[in-house]
Design a protein that fits this description.
Blueprint lengths: L6 E9 L5 H10 L4 E5 L5 H6 L1 H20 L12 H25 L3 E4 L1 E6 L2 E6 L2 E12 L3 E3 L12 E2 L1 H5 L7 E5 L3 H13 L2 E6 L10 H13 L3 E4 L2 E5 L3 E6 L2 E6 L2 E4 L3 E3 L31 E3 L10 H15 L13 E3 L4 E6 L2 H6 L5 E6 L4 H6 L5 E6 L5 E8 L6 H9 L4 H6 L9 H10 L8
Parallel strand pairs: 1-2, 1-6, 2-3, 6-17, 8-15, 9-10, 9-15, 10-11
Antiparallel strand pairs: 4-5, 5-6, 7-16, 12-13, 13-14, 18-19, 19-22, 20-21, 21-22
Helix pairs in contact: 1-8, 3-4, 3-6
Amino acid sequence: MVVGEVASPVDLLVIGGGPGGYVAALHAARLGRQVTLVESEALGGTCLNVGCIPSKALIEVADAVAAPGRVAGWGVSATTEVDMAGVREHLMTVVADLTSGVAGLLDRAGVQVVPGTARFSRPNRIAVEHDDDLKHLEFRHAIVATGSRPIEIPGLPLDGRRVVGSAELLFATELPDDLVLVGGGYVGVELACAFAKLGSRVTIVELEDRVLPGFGKRIGRAVERGLRNLGVGLCLAHRAVGVTDDGISITGPDGDLVLPADRIAVVAGRRPNSDTVEVTSAGATVDERGLVVVDAQRRATDRVFAIGDLTDGPALAHKATAEAEVAAETACGQPAGFDPTGVPMIVFGDPQVLSVGLDRDEAAAAGLVATTGRFPFAASGRARTLGATEGFVEVVADEAGTVIGVHAVGAHVAELAGEAALAVETAATVEDLAGTIHAHPTMGESIMEAALGLAGRSPHRA
């Protein structure tokens, strides 16, 4: 062994400082471990720096810009102007405040943060590169939380200017006149709504025959109506094949066409970063999708754990955070397991979407006899005061009356995710929801109303 390969010993190693990694580090430190965290970029990961947080901040800006149109019939007259350079500064401030908060938490917990890119060289060792420096760390346990990266589409190479990813689009200082989003999943829907409200002409190109293919068909149809109401063009069942001088070339059932575009954003999904960290060198198994195979304790080997986007399930920050606690507790010798009944999924579009557990079609496919209770926001007093009566809440129950799913589409429904997830996770019954007093007037009481309808005694439905 050469001198440069002498490894420094560490107790518990965390690779990746995103919402899974930094939470794992903090939890393990609370449980008494000496924790070292390796991060190649900014603390907070994709979600905090270029994903969940700045995108939601941009959506709030877009909603403010569109507010005059929404309240025009309320006796309120207003106008707005957008300064995209100022918007960018606002987003960067929001991100900086939160990343500094994460750094402070890690520092106070005694977590040693090591900058650099990590890769496994042995089952218990990693090499960390940072600029021209290379160091080796030998660990007792490691939690890998290296996240994921955008999928690349043949014919649409990212150049950082005309063809970009979601991060570059979020922090743009100029508003595109014609924006084409390649991908109609939750990222594409959220960005389409935001940029349409900011003033761009927006088109979504989606390979599937509907937007939000990972959600129920009823929700997808409601979201499509919302997108069209905002003027967003939908090229469904179409594939993006290349960039032309005039725009983007796509092909579909009706043949080939070119959409005008001065900015093209590729938001067609993500792939796990299991290869960049060379996790197989630690003895872990990676499946054909690039996902690390783990057990309920998130264990990939006897001493290596994997969490977040590296593992099966929705690539969501809150899933990674929940898995982080399980991995940290197991590494610290405590009993733990990750087996959620449902991971809440939300979309901050217009309308918003909430989905947790099974919908009616999924329940039928699973062999369950399910019933549903739906409450339309047209009958909600709170929705009326908001001027947003499109959409509904739906509660799904099995034969025994146990809640197995809650789904909603409409204004502010993302804020119902906590109660919906709690109901599914704790196997609450329809009577539990129907019998719980909900404050009036709130959007949350729509869950109670849907449960009352399922129980056959809704006071607000004929």
